[in-house]
TrEMBL record:
The organism of origin for this protein: Abeliophyllum distichum
Domain of life of the native organism: Eukaryota
Protein name according to UniProt: 26S proteasome regulatory subunit
SMART domains: PDZ
InterPro entries tied to this protein: Nas2_N, PDZ, PDZ_sf, PSMD9
Length: 224
């Protein structure tokens, strides 16, 4: 019963997190539309006057709301991780002799932690989405800028995607340097990604390469 309650609580938090991500994506797309100020662009013109081509109060409100949502997202992700850790610990606890089903062999008692699905589809693990989040649940960066017709855009990466894994890079220290090194090392070669999009885990591949714009990918990652 405790495990079922933990799972229900975690799933409820995931649903709330998906709602936060959806609102964040709407704001990001609005700020980063062609001619827009972007997430961090200057609101003043070259002469130091407020830009006349944008609604500055609306932009400031969007940026403030996005900052609030990011904080909410971080808090709710930490709560999800805590519940998943407890649930995972319970699943991996030794099975007593009285709890064992004599009809199951040892292999069938192993916890199914899920496997990746085919390219471009949500990661799945049997019938239980919780299994996947036990393995990978915490994004470490988000795509906050992406250029049209860039390698990243052409290969399927989207604004607001949250990076769970980028090649060999996962959570840890010096993430920006490691991301840059991973792209440089794999120039011209496909890199496997796991991203979180609208609350679902997606498998993608991107190929860092030279193009008409800046960088090898044409996108910007913000570390969470």
């Amino acid at each position: 019963m405790v495990g079922a309650n933990l799972k229900a609580e975690a799933m409820n938090l995931m649903e709330k997190r998906s709602g936060i991500e959806a609102e964040m994506n709407v704001i990001i797309e609005r700020l980063c539309q062609p001619g827009g100020p972007g997430l961090f662009g200057n609101l003043l013109d070259s002469e130091g006057f407020p830009r006349a081509d944008i609604d500055i109060p609306a932009v400031r409100a969007d940026r403030q709301r996005l900052s609030e949502l990011r904080n909410d997202h971080k808090d709710i992700t930490e709560k999800i991780d805590q519940k998943i850790e407890v649930l995972h610990s319970a699943r991996l606890a030794p099975i007593s002799e009285s709890d064992k089903d004599p009809g199951l062999n040892a292999q069938e008692r192993v916890v199914n932690l899920g496997t990746s699905s085919s390219f471009g589809n949500p990661v799945g693990g049997g019938n239980n989405s919780m299994d996947v989040d036990v393995v990978v649940s915490r994004p470490f960066a988000t795509v906050d800028e992406i250029t049209d017709r860039s390698p990243a855009a052409d290969d399927g990466l989207q604004l607001g995607d949250q990076i769970v894994k980028f090649g060999n890079v996962e959570v840890g220290e010096n993430l920006l340097q490691r991301l840059a090194a991973e792209a440089q090392t794999n120039q011209g070669h496909a890199i496997s990604l796991v991203v979180m999009r609208q609350g679902a885990l997606i498998n993608l591949t991107v190929t860092p390469r030279y193009w008409s714009g800046r960088g090898l990918l044409g996108c910007h990652f913000r570390i969470l």
